[in-house]
Amino acid sequence: MAALRQEDLLRLAERTSDLALKKGATEAEAYVFQDLSTYVSIERGQISKTSRTFDRGLGCRAIVNKSLGFCYTNALENEDAVEETVLKALDFARANRPDDNWRGLPDEKPFPSVKDTYDSRIENLPVENLVETASVMLDAAEKKDKRAFPIEGEVRASYLSSALANSNRVSVDDRGTMIECSLATIGHDADEVTPVCFEFNLERTYDIDAAAVGEEAARLAVSALKAKKTETKETTVILTQFALQQLLSYTFISAISADRVQRDQSFFRGRVGEKVASEIVTVHDDGLLPGGIRTWKSDGEGVPQQKTLIIEKGVLRGFIYDNYAARKEGRESTGNGARASYLSTPSVDVTNLHFQAGSKSAEALIREVGEGLLVNSVQGAHTSNPASGEFSVVATPAWNIKNGEIAYPVKGAMLTGDVFHLLANVSGLANNERKIAQVVAPWVRVENVKVIGK
Amino acid sequence: MKDVLAKIIDTAVETFRAEYVEVRAQKLYKTAITVKETRVEAAKQGIENGAALRVLVKGAWGFASVGTLDAQALSGAVSDACRMAKAASARRRLPVKLAQTEAVEDKIVSKPKKDPAKIPVENKMSLLLSVNNTALQEDNRVKSVTANYLDLTGTSYFINNEHTYIEQDKLYVFLGVSATAKENNVFTFSNEAVGSTSGYEVFDAETPTKMGKTVARRATTQLKAKPPRGGTFPVVLAPNVVGTLVHEAFGHLAEADLTLAGSVLSDKLEKKVASNVVTFYDDGTINGAFGSFKYDDEGVQAQKTLLVKDGVLVGLMHSRETAQQLSADPTGNARAEDFHFEPIVRMRNTFIEARDYTFEELIEDVKFGYYLKSFRGGEANLDGTFQVGIQEAYEIVRGEVGEPVRNASISGNTLETLFKIDAVGKEFELWPGLCGKGQSACVGDGGAHTRVKEVMVGGSA
User: Fold this and answer.
1) Residue B266's closest chain A neighbor by CA?
2) For labeling, which of A20, A129, A290, B3 is most exposed (least CB within 10 Å)?
C-alpha cells in the first residue's frame, strides 16, 4: 500500500464533507490523515527488529441543528465504508442533544507558510539507512563506557500528511516528516543498577546526530552510578528540559487551556494581567516555530496555527483556544484545536510551548548554586493534580550540586510542591534551549523546592 | 478469513524462507463518548480493520502493520515485513529464537448478557449524563465532571506457521469519570473507573449514581484536607493502592523483557525479594476481569502465574522469546494493543494474595501513619524506584482513621519496601486500569488491604 497523494487526500476530504451536507447535515467537516512510519528497534543491546506501519483513515464531524456527531473509518479504499461513516456521524448527531454554545465550524482564513517541516530525504529513506543509524548510536554508547547498558532504543522515520475540508469552504492539506533516534540505558556496576537514563534527537529535517545520542545516553547512566540518598530540605533545583516538560505537561498546560479555564478547573482563571511567574519567565505557544515538532500550517480543524503570548515577563497574558472554546467567548481560535489522528475530534492543546531561554551557559547556571539538585527527569508527573498544579514526584536521575559543581548522584529524592510556586521561584534560565515533545525550553533554575529524602 | 491468512503464511515461508511467521487480523468496532458536565462533547463511532504481520528471518524480527484486510495488500505487507527483517538481521549478533508451544485450533465467542454493540448510543449518552448530573447535584462545590466511555467489540484472527489458528472475540467496556471541586482557591481533583470484559451489564452493579457520588465525595473531601507531612511513615494501603504498588513496584520488573534488560530482579529468581507474608500472582483467567483473555497475541493460552510465593521470587511473565532466553515456559503474557502494535510482555490481573487480617487489626497498632485509599497513577523504574500518586488518603492517629490528606504520593525502592510489608488483610478486590508501555493494555490490579511498616510519603507540610 502506498501513501495517498496530497491532491487525492484533499479531494476525499472535500467529497466526504459535501456528502454529509447532501445527506442532511447543517454543517460538516472531514479530516483525512495518514502516517507511514519505518523504524528500527533496539532491545537489550542489540538491533532486534525493523518495522513498517501504515495507518490512515478519515473522520467526519456532522452537525445537525447544533448537535454534533462523529464517526471514523480506516477503510478508505471502500466507497461504501466512507458513506456509512458519514451516515453514522449523522445518526450520532441526531441522537445527541443540541449544544447552545455551538457557534459553527471555523471559517476560511489564509494559511501561513511554515519552515523546515518536510524533508523528501526522510520520506524516501531506505530502511538500511535507519539500521545503519541505529548501529552508529549503539556503537557510540558501547564505546563510551562498558558500565552503560542500552536497554532499548529506536530509530524512526515518519511521513505524515493530512487534509481537511468543511462546509465553510475551508480546504487545506499539509504534510511533514520526522526522524528520531532515541536510546534508553541503565548503568550497572557490581550490585548497583541506576534508574533508566534517556537521550534522543528528533528533527523534522534529515539532521540528527545518532552518535551524540548514544554517547550522551551512556554518559548519563554512568554518571548516575554510586548514588546516595539525600536529606529532607528546601533547596535550589535545576530542571533540565526533560523534567520541566514532564512537570508542565500535567499541570501548566491544563491551566492555560481555555476549555479548562472556562470550566473552572484552572488556577489561572480570572488572572490574566496578573503576575503569575518570576519576571524572567516569558512563554509563547508557537505553532509556527521553524522545525518545531508540532509546527504545521493548520491545526486539526482548519484554523491557521499562530504564535500566541501566554506569559510576558511573569505576567499572564492569555490562554490557548480551539474554535469551540473561542467562539463561546466571542473570540477567535488561537489555532490550538489539536487532533491526534483521524479517530479523534479536536481538543485544546499546545503546539510548541516555548519558554524563552536566558543568556547564561548551563555551567554558569550551576556555578551560582551553593547547594542544590540537578534533576534530569522525574517519575510520576502524570499523578499531579491538574486543577491545582500540585505534584509529588521522584527525581530519577538527579545529582547533588555543591559549591557550584556537580558533586554526586542522588537516589530516591522526592520533589513536592505546585507548578505555580515553581514558576514564581524561577531564578535563572540557561541558553541551552532544546525541544522535548511539545515543550521548547532551556534548563530552568528554581529556588525553595521541597525535597524529601531519608 | 483462514484461507486468506494461510496464503500469507505460505508466502513468507516459501518466498522469504521465514523461520516464523504470524498474522493477526482484526475487525474492531469502537464507540467512545465524552460528556463534560451536561454536554455530550463527542459521541464517536469507528471501524478499524487491519492486520499485523510479524516474521523471523535470519534470526531477526520484521513487523508490518496495515489498516486493511485486502488479500493483495496483506501479501505486500508480509513481503515488506520479511525485507525489514533481513535488513535488521545484518546487524543482529544472536538470533532470536522462540520457546515451543502447542499448536491450537480454537474459536472463542464472547457471550455478554448485555452486548455493548447492541446498546443504542442514546442509552450510553444517558448513562454518562446521569453520572455527571449525580456528581454535580451531590455538592455545589463540584465545578466540573468529565465522563469518558469506551467500548470495543470485534474479532481477532491469529494464525502462524506452526499450525495455530485462533478466532477470538474481543469485548471491553470502560468508563472513567473525573471531577474537580473548588472552594476558597483550593482546587481538588478525583477520578474513578469501571472496566469489564463481560459486558455492558457491569453498569447494573456499578450504577451511574454510585459512580457520580463517589467522584463528587472524593473531590469535596479533599477540599478540607491538609497536605501530608513529608517523610517516612507506616502506611496501610487499600486494595486499589496496593494493586498499583504490586503492578508498578514489582510487576514491571518481573516482565521478563525488563528483567532481562537488567531490572533489579534480574538475579533474584528463587531468592527472597519480599517478606514472608507476600504472595503475588499475575492471572489472565479471572472471569470478566479487565486484564483477562483466553489466548494472548502469540496464541498462547493465558494462565494464572505465580510470581512470588511467601516472599520468594518463583516466576516471571513471559513471551515466547523471553521464555526461550530464560529456559522457562511461555505464560501467555504477550499482548498487543491492536494491529498497529506487536506483542510485548504485559501484565494481566496482578495482585497480592489475601491473608487473614481485618482492617481494624491492620491499623490498631499504628501510632501515626497514613491510610491510602485510592490511587491516581504510578510509575516504575528498572532500578526499583517506584512512585504511586494518591488521590484519597487519611491520617491514621493512634490506631484510628483520622483526617483526610490530599495530593500525597509514596515512593521507595522495591526490594527495600516489599520486605517491609508486615500484614495483609482478608478482603480481596480487583480494580481495572490502563497500563502504558509504549502501547496501552487493559489490566486489573488489586489484592487485600496491606500494611507497610515504613515508606516515604511525599508531602509539602
Assistant:
1) A193
2) B3
The distance of Cα B262 from the centroid of its chain, to the nearest Å, equals 22
pTM attached to this predicted model? 0.94
What does the pLDDT look like over B305-350, one tens digit per residue?
A: 999 999 999 999 999 999 999 999 999 999 999 999 999 999 999 9
Q: Which chain B residues are within 8 Å of A196, Cβ to Cβ?
A: 381-383
The answer to whether the beta carbons of residues B418 and B393 sit under 8 Å apart is no
Of B76, B381, B382, the CB nearest to A1: B76
Among candidates B258, B377, B383 on the partner chain, residue whose Cβ is nearest the Cβ of A383: B377
Q: Cβ–Cβ contacts within 10 Å for residue B416, how many?
A: 13
| Cα gap A349→A339, rounded to integer Å | 9
Place of cell 448478557: B113
Please judge whether A54 and B460 are an interchain contact, meaning their C-beta atoms are less than 8 angstroms apart. Answer: no
Helix B121-138 × helix A79-95 angle, to 10°: 40
With a cut of 70, say whether residue B461 has pLDDT above it: no
- Measure the CA–CA gap between A414 and B411, rounded to whole angstroms: 8
CB contact under 8 A, B385 and A394: yes
Q: CA–CA separation, B31 vs B150, rounded Å?
A: 6
The strand pair at B400-405 and B385-397 is best described as: antiparallel
Contact A53 B64 (CB under 8 A): yes
3-state secondary structure of B74: helix
Percent of chain B with pLDDT over 70: 100
Residues B156-190 pLDDT 10s:
999 999 999 999 999 999 999 999 999 998 999 99
Alpha helix (H) residue ranges in B139-254:
202-205, 208-223, 239-245
- Which residue type sits at A152? E
Closest CA to B160 of B318, B336, B319, B13: B13
Query: In Å, how far is A284's CA from the nearest CA of chain B?
Result: 25
What residues of A are in contact with residue B87 (Cβ under 8 Å)? Answer: 40, 50, 127-128, 131
Q: Is B460 in contact with A416 (Cβ distance < 8 A)? A: yes
A–B interface: beta-carbon pairs under 8 A: 279
Query: Which residue of B437, B456, B457 is the best one to mutate when testing the A interface, meaning the one whose CB has the most A CBs within 10 A?
Result: B456
Contact B385, B403 (CB under 8 A): no
Inspect the interface and report whether the beta carbons of A380 and B381 lie closer than 8 Å.
no
SS3 state at B30:
strand
Residue for cell digits 510482555? Answer: B345
Question: What is the C-alpha separation between A139 and A212, in angstroms, rounded?
Answer: 11
Q: Name chain B contacts of A388, Cβ cutoff 8 Å.
A: 186-189, 407
- Look at A412 and B342 and tell me if their CB atoms are within 8 Å: no
Check: CB of residue A215 under 8 Å from CB of residue A242. Answer: no
> A386 to chain B: nearest residue by CA?
B189
Contacts of B348 (CB under 8 A, 6+ apart): B282, B283, B284, B291, B292, B293, B302, B332, B333, B335, B443, B444
Q: Which three cell numbers stand for residue B355?
A: 491473608
Cell numbers for A262: 472556562
Strands A46-64 and A27-43: antiparallel
**What b/e readout covers B374-388, taking b as 16+ CB neighbours within 10 angstroms?**
bbbbbbbbbbbbbbb
The Cα B192–Cα B440 span in angstroms is: 18
Contact B230 A149 (CB under 8 A): no
Q: For residue range A397-431, what is the model confidence (pLDDT) as tens digits?
A: 999 999 999 999 999 999 999 999 999 999 999 99
